[in-house]
Design goal:
Length: 481
């Protein structure tokens, strides 16, 4: 996808290699605006600029002379930064080097361009987090400032020396004031409870105290909540438990429960319009996606989206085929569903919000005995599966790179006693897995997973839901489990 410009020196260096992840169709060139940045002229639709940037929205609401001009000049920006902003507005996902990052942050802050800000947040990694944080602080891009600070806090042990050499004291103080994200878990077969019952101990959300190597209780599930065949995910540091079943007849739980970790409180919300269980739940950009599932002995392909801000559910494009318990993950701000078809074929589809469709990304043929899991790290998708035939106690892993479109098999195999790798959760460059025997942390390095440390196992029997939560700043001192 090209951007129209009378001069674009060096502007094709990286942006054109970004994929058009949303497939946005071109609009009629009726109401176009020429924007001059440095000595480069860009021609773009006014509608796209107004929808994507608060700066242009305010300009065309102001009634000022500039809003009637066919051409305006932006004095405070660099051409490269504006070129990147237009690419993101059009649905591309460009990779950025250090110079690109600085110019993109400046542009996002000046134009108040939410799509570009979100793209920058999704690009924060261990290679650029310090630059992102410092530059966002300089230009006052608060969303990115906070996201980069949290990323740094989550891997502070590994980069503290570099932080102290690179950042000014006030920025270091802000990072150190934050709580890191804790590895947390709750049993996956907890049905609706009764106060004081013998199952009360299992109805707790626990977190791993890494310094003390102990699992501790964070909060109790609401009595009406069930994690059995429910959808469980975290969005904006809120834990959502949606649907699920109760009783021997698998009656569907209609409600949705939300735990606000910042305030340490639970609230109840309406569940999906279509009752469902054994579905996948993904949180992204202020929305929850309920994907597939079962109801009345029927496997479904339907997908619903909850707009968290309004509390309203709406239907979205169906999956390509019915699926229950489909493995889902996020990477580079995109949502992926990994399904295991007959004939040993693994298919990865991406949901494209702008066009409301599922697109086939890639397929892989591999022998396996049962099950699979997928997690995202940077622009890589890692697919874990059990070995073929009687090798179900070991876990094989393949990596799909979204930028190159290439598969690679990770060397060796990983022990998968009681499905530990099927609970993998990524935090910065670490991956946490667990079972009742042990919690294992791996470090992702050049696409390989290297064991880092072993900690205490989860003190509950059976399978679990795992996720990351930043703990409340003030809470009742937790008890050991």
């Amino acid at each position: 996808m090209s951007l129209r410009s009378s001069k674009s020196p060096d502007t094709n260096r990286k942006v054109d290699s970004g994929s058009d992840r949303d497939g946005r169709p071109c609009c009629p060139a009726a109401a176009r605006l020429t924007v001059v940045v440095e000595d480069t002229r860009f021609s773009e639709e006014k509608k796209l600029l107004v929808q994507s940037c608060d700066y242009f929205g305010a300009l065309y609401r102001s009634g000022m002379r500039e809003c009637r001009q066919a051409e305006i000049r932006l004095q405070c920006l660099r051409a490269r930064g504006f070129f990147i902003a237009l690419a993101v507005m059009r649905g591309q996902a460009p990779t950025l080097d250090a110079d690109d990052i600085v110019e993109a942050i400046q542009c996002a802050a000046f134009l108040q361009a939410a799509p570009l800000t979100r793209h920058l947040v999704e690009l924060v990694d261990s290679d650029n987090c310090l630059l992102m944080f410092h530059t966002a602080a300089t230009f006052g891009l608060l969303e990115l400032y906070h996201a980069a600070a949290l990323y740094i806090r989550n891997m502070y042990v590994d980069i503290e020396a570099e932080v102290r050499l690179t950042l000014p004291a006030e920025l270091i103080s802000f990072v150190e004031s934050l709580n890191p994200s804790a590895f947390a878990a709750v049993g996956a077969h907890v049905t609706c409870g009764v106060s004081g019952s013998v199952h009360a101990a299992s109805r707790t959300v626990c977190y791993l105290d890494e310094s003390g190597n102990a699992w501790k209780t964070l909060t109790d599930l609401p009595l009406e909540a069930s994690t059995s065949m429910a959808g469980v995910t975290v969005l904006d540091n809120k834990l959502y438990v949606v649907g699920g079943v109760r009783g021997v007849y698998k009656d569907v739980v209609d409600a949705c429960f939300c735990y606000n970790a910042d305030e340490n409180v639970w609230t109840e919300m309406a569940g999906p319009t279509q009752p469902r269980f054994n579905f996948s739940l993904v949180g992204q950009d202020g929305r929850l996606y309920a994907i597939g599932g079962e109801y009345e002995r029927t496997v479904m392909s339907s997908v619903e989206i909850l707009e968290v801000g309004t509390g309203r559910w709406r239907f979205a494009a169906h999956l390509p085929r019915p699926a229950a318990g489909v493995a889902c993950t996020k990477a580079t701000g995109r949502i992926f569903a990994c399904s295991w078809r007959p004939m040993e074929t693994t298919e990865i589809h991406e949901y494209v919000p702008r066009t409301d469709e599922w697109r086939l990304v890639t397929s892989l043929i591999r022998r396996q005995s049962y099950g699979h899991c997928v997690v995202g790290h940077r622009d890589n998708l890692y697919v874990m599966r059990n070995g073929p035939s009687d090798d179900f106690l070991r876990c094989m892993m393949d990596c799909y790179n979204l930028s190159t479109g290439q598969w690679s098999a990770l060397p060796g195999h990983f022990a998968n006693s009681k499905g530990s790798l099927f609970t993998a959760v990524v935090r910065s460059d670490s991956v946490f897995t667990l079972n009742r025997s042990a919690t294992l942390e791996y470090v992702v390095h050049q696409k390989s997973w290297k064991p880092r440390r072993q900690m205490k196992g989860f003190p509950r029997s059976g399978s679990v839901w795992t996720f990351l939560l930043r703990l409340p700043m003030v809470q009742i001192p937790p008890k050991n489990d």
